[in-house]
Amino acid sequence: MQTRYYRLLDYFVHIVDCGSLLGAAQHLNVSPPVISKALSDLEENIGHTLIIRGRGNLELTDAGRYIYEQSQHMMTVAAGAINALKTPPRDIGGNVGITLPSELSLCWFPEVLSVFRKLQPNVNVSILASDESTDLVKIGCELALRAEYHLEKPITANPALCLALHLVCSPNILPSGKVSSKKLIESMPFIGFRFRTNNWILQGVHRTTGKVHKFKTNPTVSVNSAIYGKSLALYGHGMSLVLSPSVTRELQTGELISIAQSHQFGYVKLRVIYRDQYPSDAAQVLGNFIESWAPEMPERLD
Predict the structure, then answer these.
(1) 236 within domain boundaries
(2) 191 and 108 fall within a common domain
(3) Average pLDDT, whole number, for the chain?
(4) What is the pLDDT of residues 235-282, one digit of tens each?
(5) pLDDT at 87
(6) Residues 135 and 277 grouped into a single domain
(7) How does DSSP classify residue 155?
(8) In which domain, by residue range, is 257 found?
(9) Is pTM, for the whole model, over 0.85?
(10) Do 56 and 105 fall into the same domain?
């Protein structure tokens, strides 16, 4: 592909993403006539109208929608290739905002951040803890750490970014005597999550047979954060499904216990996403660090 065509497609993607020719010009730091001519040249080369220009909004034609989807994919692949090999300078500076689930922001990310700041002391990181997917543009964050649930352990390039889920409760509410996992789960109160539609069903994979079992639960309290669920479990309100890093101390002290240990209740795979195709050096170096994170990384740098 000629460089000129790549530039035209890049301009077109920005026009669509920004919602206007003026917005694209401001984002790319070029004059509006340059953007307008780029769109005209692209339409002339393709032989199709790509955008129907109206008052206050842009409407993509079928051809425009196809070109946008293909171009966006091409830009993403190209940006990924460049960013994968790009080595930022050691002492970069700047501000970067990241949003991630509240449970991770309290029990997992502080350790990651402590090592990162020793490597990049001039990068200022702001954190927005949120348990719902948010628009990165609206909240002003350059990158997000998304959590994807898997019942069985997913294949991932970095096992450190795959966190196990534990079903825990206070030992004070356990029934006396030996009870099967099925009866235990179905008889005890369960702390559910508001955003899950199947709150009354809990799935687990038997560690020996590999068979998937479905357990009916009795949600008595609903929360929008696993941290709240853990806190309620500590007070004996019921069972809670939480990430392994968030209960390490409580399991060691016996304040919480892991129940139904014959089953595994899934994993959360962490994935870094960026707001823009071409993130700043500060965002890129933080994202790369998270993706390469390993808990055994040295705290002291030689």
Answers:
(1) yes
(2) no
(3) 85
(4) 999 999 999 999 999 999 999 999 999 999 999 999 888 887 678 889
(5) 59
(6) yes
(7) P
(8) 162-265
(9) no
(10) no
